[in-house]
Amino acid sequence: GLAGFGGLPGPARAETLEPNSWEDVTNYCNYYEFGTGKGDPAQYAGQLTTAPWSVKIDGMVERPGDYDFQQILGEMTLEERIYRFRCVEAWSMVVPWTGFELADLLALAGVKSEAKYVAFETLYRPSEMPGTAYRVLDWPYREGLRLDEAMHPLTLMATGIFGKDLPNQNGAPLRLVVPWKYGFKSIKSIVRITLTDKEPQTSWNMANAREYGFYSNVNPEVSHPRWSQASERRLGGGLFASRQDTLMFNGYGDEVASLYEGMDLAKFF
Amino acid sequence: MIDAINTALRRLPTWVLYLLGSLYPVWLLYLGMTGGLGADPVKALEHELGERALQLLILGLAVTPLRRFVGVNLIRFRRALGVLTFTYVALHLLVWLLLDVQIVSQILADIAKRPYITIGMAGFVLMVPLALTSNDASVKRLGRKWKRLHLLTYPAAFLGGLHYVMLAKGFQIEPLIYLTVIVVLLALRLFGFVVRSFVALRV
């Protein structure tokens, strides 16, 4: 991988991006386990117990088991990454994450050579998650990446924002951040990571395969069936801000375009 | 109890409704410009106006059944409810056009290609002649035709409810509740119509 943050080329560098406010990032969230309103997670996620926390890593790994979150933290080197965050709903923010590369966590468990995909699961705990009373999605929330996407140095496991621990509404204590994909790929409050040789099922794809593909790379040329993805509302600019053009791979094309060489991105959307 | 409500309602001038109904969007605009609508004021304004329009629409549709089945008489306010519904739908559309999508080519493409937008636009278009004829002069001039024309309220209401259901992500309850209430209110009219025809035939 690239040597920490300094080694990342142009678009991923921090100084070019101005983060959104703490208020924006922590009060405007999609975390349907706490309700479908943007303010619901901030309002209801406080009751979520995030300590103790462990992540089950299983499937095609050398050392399967329950990994305690504090133990994981002890093994990892945290760094800050300021990324663009583009929601499939055509709004975007800039978030200063703290975290470590997913590749490092996977190395801890030892990925077997036959593994081709990584599947993730969010905590499903109805007693603390009022939104799960409704079957908005088929709980638990599931996501997945191809192994090369998971091993990419931009792919982050975030444990904090703005140098502080992740607030519950942002996916405490541990979430994925894949900056070149739509936000819903960046699964929150992870309790399970499974290495597999089959493309895993993912929640939004299960809910509506026509609208949400497995890859869900940010792509201004492939519209969502219900809205264009060519441009986005960059939050933080107020009521009269202009829309901005959406960038291919959310501006991380130099780093990740090679992962998809030869693929028809309109078909594998 | 019902009499007391009706007496109180009779004392309430309709201009109060128009005044409150016009102040509310101004208040929302003020909130949006001063950070009171959160991180995404454009969507907040757009959704709030849309949802309020649906609530006004439902209230307007409820006027007749409320009088018939409950005895509460809101008939004096029905025009105000209709005009305010149209105003909120028009403002909802304006926010979408000017503050949200902004780009003319994309607006046209959206209207043509995205069914939920096509349906929302169709609902709005159906409401235009209703808004234009919501005055005493038109009622007088159109006579019986006025009542026929205003039957357009029913398809417009249905399209509005459908528009909301179609834009939800995942399986969401709230839009379905709105659509159900609208469908029930429309069905009550159909039911009333069938009963009246049946009675007429018997007589």
TrEMBL record, chain B:
Cofactor note text: Binds 1 FMN per subunit.
Transmembrane segments: 12-33, 53-70, 82-104, 116-139, 151-171, 177-199
Ranges of residues in domain Ferric oxidoreductase: 59-160
InterPro entries: Fe3_Rdtase_TM_dom, MsrQ-like
Location in or out of the cell: Cell membrane; Membrane
Cofactor: FMN; heme b
Topology of this chain in the membrane: Multi-pass membrane protein
Keyword Translocase found: no
Subunit organization: Heterodimer of a catalytic subunit (MsrP) and a heme-binding subunit (MsrQ).
Family: Belongs to the MsrQ family.
Function summary: Part of the MsrPQ system that repairs oxidized periplasmic proteins containing methionine sulfoxide residues (Met-O), using respiratory chain electrons. Thus protects these proteins from oxidative-stress damage caused by reactive species of oxygen and chlorine generated by the host defense mechanisms. MsrPQ is essential for the maintenance of envelope integrity under bleach stress, rescuing a wide series of structurally unrelated periplasmic proteins from methionine oxidation.
Name of the protein this chain belongs to: Protein-methionine-sulfoxide reductase heme-binding subunit MsrQ
Source organism: Pseudophaeobacter arcticus
